[in-house]
C-alpha cells in the first residue's frame, strides 16, 4: 500500500477484544480505552463474547450501557465457542466487508490494560512505515517489568532447545530460540502475540482472515508467517506498552499459579502449525527432537535435583498427541 493512498484516506481503526469467561477483566480493559479512543479519530471497539455461558455477555453489555460507551463499543455475543481465531474473525469480517473497512485492526486481549498513548504510538508507527504489515505492542506487568513480546518462528532447533534446556546448547542455538532478545527500540521480528497486535488491512487482503482450524495457540504465529510469505513484515514496537495478565482464561501461561496440565488443543495447534507450514517430515522431526531433548532434561532433573515447574504429565501428553500417534492434518485441518 503506497504512502499516497494512506494520505488520501483518513485513518480508521477497529479494536477487537475476544472474551471467554473474563468479563471483569474485559470491562477493565475497556475502561483503559476510554481516554485512548478520543485520541484516535474513526476508532471503534467490538467485544466478541465466545459463548462464555457464565453471564459474561450480559455483564459486558450492562457495563457498556451503564458507562455510556455505546457510541464506540459494540458487543457480539457468539452462540458458539470456535476458539480465538474464530472469535476475532467474527469481529473482523463484518468490518472488512463494510463500505468503509478500517485501515487497521488491533487485536487486544481482555486480560490487558492499555497504558496511556499505547495504541496511538503503534498507529503512528504503522502510518510512518506503510510497508509494515503487523506491529506488536510491548508487554509488561503492573510494575512495568517488560515481558517477552517479540518472537522467532518455531523450528526444529527451537524445539530441541525447548526440550533440552541445557545452557551450552542454548548458546549454540541462540539464533533460533523462540524468544528474541529484548529491545528498547522498534525492531523487525518474526511474530508478536495476539494480545496486542496491529494488522494493516492490506494483510487481510493478501492472506485472508486468521485460520479457524486453530482453536487456541499458534494461530497468531501462523498468521504472521502467512503475512511474511506474502511480503508483509512484522515489527515489535516496545514504546506501545500494555499490561498483560497471561493465562487468565486458560491458566496455561499463568506464571503466578501452579501450572495446569497442558490442554489437548495446545498440542493440536502445535501439530497443525508444523504440518501446515513445513510438511509431515519436518513436523515429525520437530516432535522427535523435542521428545529426545525433554527426555534428557528429565534425567538431568532427577540427577541434579532440579525443581519441576512443568505442567503435569507433559511428556506422556506430548507423546500421546505427537504426530506419530495422531497423524498429520490435511489442508482443511481435519485429522487424517
- Given helix and strand content, the structural type is alpha/beta
CATH fold-type name of the largest domain: Spore Coat Polysaccharide Biosynthesis Protein SpsA, Chain A
Tell me the helix content: 40-55%
> What is the class of the largest domain in the CATH system?
Alpha Beta
Number of strands: 10
C-alpha termini separation: 39 Å
Major beta sheet summary: 10 strands, mixed
Question: What Rg do the Cα atoms give?
Answer: 20 Å
> So what's the overall shape?
globular
The CATH level-2 architecture of the largest domain is identified as Alpha-Beta Complex
Q: What average pLDDT do the residues reach? A: 92
What are the SSEs and their pairings?
Blueprint: H1 3-8, E1 13-19, H2 23-33, E2 43-49, H3 56-67, E3 73-77, H4 84-96, E4 104-108, E5 112-114, H5 118-128, E6 134-140, E7 146-147, H6 156-164, H7 167-172, E8 187-189, E9 196-200, H8 201-207, H9 219-229, E10 234-244, H10 264-278, H11 280-304, H12 314-320, H13 323-326
Parallel strand pairs: 1-2, 1-4, 2-3, 6-10
Antiparallel strand pairs: 4-9, 5-10, 6-7, 6-9, 8-10
Helix pairs in contact: 2-3, 6-11, 10-11
Describe this structure in words.
There is one protein chain. The chain has 336 residues and is of the alpha/beta class. The chain has 2 domains: 3-151 and 190-244, Spore Coat Polysaccharide Biosynthesis Protein SpsA, Chain A; 264-326. It is built from 13 helices and 10 strands. The protein has helices at 3-8, 23-33, 56-67, 84-96, 118-128, 156-164, 167-172, 201-207, 219-229, 264-278, 280-304, 314-320, 323-326, and strands at 13-19, 43-49, 73-77, 104-108, 112-114, 134-140, 146-147, 187-189, 196-200, 234-244. Strands 1, 2, 3, 4, 5, 6, 7, 8, 9 and 10 form a 10-stranded mixed beta sheet that branches. It is globular and about 60 Å long. The two termini are 39 Å apart. Residues 1-8 and 330-336 have low confidence and may be disordered.
Amino acid at each position: 500500500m503506497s504512502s499516497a493512498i494512506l494520505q488520501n484516506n483518513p485513518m480508521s481503526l477497529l479494536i477487537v477484544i475476544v472474551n471467554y469467561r473474563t468479563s471483569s477483566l474485559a470491562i477493565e480493559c475497556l475502561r483503559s480505552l476510554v481516554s485512548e479512543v478520543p485520541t484516535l479519530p474513526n476508532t471503534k471497539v467490538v467485544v466478541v463474547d465466545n459463548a462464555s455461558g457464565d453471564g459474561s455477555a450480559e455483564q459486558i453489555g450492562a457495563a457498556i450501557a451503564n458507562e455510556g460507551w455505546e457510541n464506540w463499543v459494540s458487543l457480539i455475543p457468539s452462540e458458539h465457542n470456535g476458539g480465538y481465531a474464530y472469535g476475532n474473525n467474527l469481529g473482523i469480517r463484518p468490518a472488512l466487508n463494510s463500505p468503509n473497512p478500517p485501515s487497521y485492526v488491533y487485536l487486544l486481549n481482555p486480560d490487558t490494560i492499555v497504558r496511556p498513548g499505547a495504541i496511538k504510538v503503534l498507529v503512528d508507527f504503522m502510518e510512518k512505515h506503510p510497508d509494515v504489515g503487523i506491529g506488536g505492542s510491548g508487554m509488561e506487568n503492573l510494575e512495568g517489568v517488560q515481558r517477552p513480546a517479540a518472537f522467532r518462528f518455531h523450528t526444529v532447533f527451537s524445539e530441541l532447545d525447548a526440550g533440552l534446556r541445557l545452557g551450552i546448547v542454548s548458546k549454540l542455538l541462540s539464533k533460533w530460540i523462540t524468544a528474541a532478545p529484548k529491545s528498547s527500540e522498534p525492531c523487525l521480528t518474526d511474530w508478536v502475540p495476539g494480545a496486542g497486535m496491529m494488522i494493516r488491512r492490506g494483510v487481510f487482503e493478501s492472506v485472508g482472515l486468521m485460520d479457524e482450524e486453530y482453536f487456541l495457540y499458534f494461530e497468531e504465529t501462523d498468521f504472521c508467517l502467512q503475512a511474511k510469505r506474502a511480503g508483509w513484515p512484522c515489527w515489535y514496537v516496545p514504546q506501545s506498552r500494555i499490561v498483560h495478565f497471561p493465562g487468565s482464561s486458560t491458566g496455561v501461561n499463568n506464571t503466578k499459579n501452579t501450572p495446569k496440565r497442558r490442554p489437548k488443543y495446545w498440542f493440536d495447534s502445535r501439530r497443525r502449525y508444523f504440518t501446515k507450514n513445513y510438511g509431515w517430515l519436518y513436523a515429525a522431526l520437530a516432535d522427535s527432537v523435542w521428545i529426545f531433548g525433554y527426555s534428557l532434561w528429565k534425567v538431568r532433573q532427577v540427577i541434579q535435583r532440579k525443581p519441576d515447574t512443568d505442567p503435569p504429565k507433559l511428556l506422556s501428553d506430548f507423546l500421546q498427541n505427537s504426530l506419530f500417534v495422531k497423524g498429520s492434518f490435511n489442508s482443511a485441518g481435519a485429522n487424517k
